[in-house]
Amino acid sequence: MDWQSFAETPLQSAEDMRRQITDRAVSDGEFRSLLVSSPKNAISQELGVDLPDDINVVVHESDAQTLHLSLPVSEIGEEQLEAIAAGRCCC
């Protein structure tokens, strides 16, 4: 299971959940500390759900000198997979 499919419930989308967690972390220093030190516990506390064991949560605190980009998982095609399996470059 991935974060997106876990988070898409009739009540909230993944983006709504992210926004709720971020808003709480901005306004509540104690929650922010918990989110940094124990993200799954903080999310469970805020959203009232338990995240599956196979979901990893990484929290980054931003600063003015750092840009964080989050890239989606890239799917590779069958042809690329065969090339990799055969030891050929698929670039």
Count of separate DSSP helical elements: 5
Oligomer: single chain
Given as residue ranges, the uncertain stretches (5+ residues, pLDDT < 50) are: none
The number of strands is: 0
Q: Percentage of helical residues?
A: 40-55%
The backbone outline, from C-alpha atoms, is: elongated
Give the CA-CA distance, first to last residue.
Answer: 29 Å
Quote the average pLDDT: 81
Strand content: under 5%
The description of the largest β-sheet is: none
Secondary structure category: mainly alpha
Task: Outline the secondary-structure elements.
Elements: H1 3-7, H2 14-27, H3 29-37, H4 39-47, H5 78-85
Helix pairs in contact: 2-3, 3-4
Structure commentary:
The structure is a single chain. This protein is an all-alpha fold. The protein has helices at 3-7, 14-27, 29-37, 39-47, 78-85. It has a domain at 1-59. It is 49% helix and 0% strand. The longest helix has 14 residues, at 14-27. The model has no long low-confidence stretch (mean pLDDT 81).
Name a few traits of the molecule.
single chain, mainly alpha
Brief sketch in words of this structure:
This protein has 91 residues and is mainly alpha-helical. Helix content is 49%, strand content 0%. It has a domain at 1-59.
